[in-house]
Design brief:
The protein is mainly α and 234 residues long. It contains nine helices and two strands, in the order αααααββαααα. It has a two-stranded antiparallel ribbon. Helix 8 packs antiparallel against helix 9. The longest helix is centred in the last third of the chain and has 36 residues. It is globular. The two termini are 33 Å apart. The model has no long low-confidence stretch (mean pLDDT 88).
Amino acid sequence: MRSFFKSISVFEWIMWCASTVCATVCFFAFGNTNYHYLIGAVIGFTMLIFMAKGNPFGQILSIVFSVFYGIISYSFKYYGEMITYLGMTAPMAVFVLITWLKNPYNGNRTEVKVGTLTKLEKILFVVISAVVTVAFFFILRALGTANLLVSTLSVLTSFMAVFLSSRRSRFYAVFYALNDIVLITLWSMASSEDIMYLPMVVCFSAFLIMDIYGFVNWGRIRKRQSENSQTLQK
């Protein structure tokens, strides 16, 4: 942990601090008393910093964040979000954690070895994503989920992101970013009915910036790992 915090760049500290301050100000400005909203947001910001650096501890925080977010989603009848995070994201985060720990870069368990998808995995990615989307559409409709189409799209992008995380692909961040856009839309709809949900819009706006950074940083990690491998081969 000590070496990890030393490795955090100034930009990463600025992102984390700015996100936390914005979420806190927004939380108190609108008189929100549901402190698990704020705690969940801060856990989420921390999670994304760890994940952007390919650190498996980010997956542990993902499990914790899923519980907080599932509770928040239930309060507005966003059953798709609740089911996705408690029934899919959290359990798969355990699997992803194990996968990342089994694939450390050069024995360093604080950094995962970046991977790529095979042709078969790409096909499975598309097919399974389609099946999950169709199945959840009918499940969520049966549950009377609010904003059904947007909620279904959220399930799709979440699944894609988690699938790619399990394969250690840097494109996981692209689909999490897409998911952030969907969630900004989803919670903006909720905020139009109850202003106390506005902190969630702020939260996922910060998530979007962090996930874009995660994609860029994984590109750097992948390049560095590749260059080091070529050097060792020589």
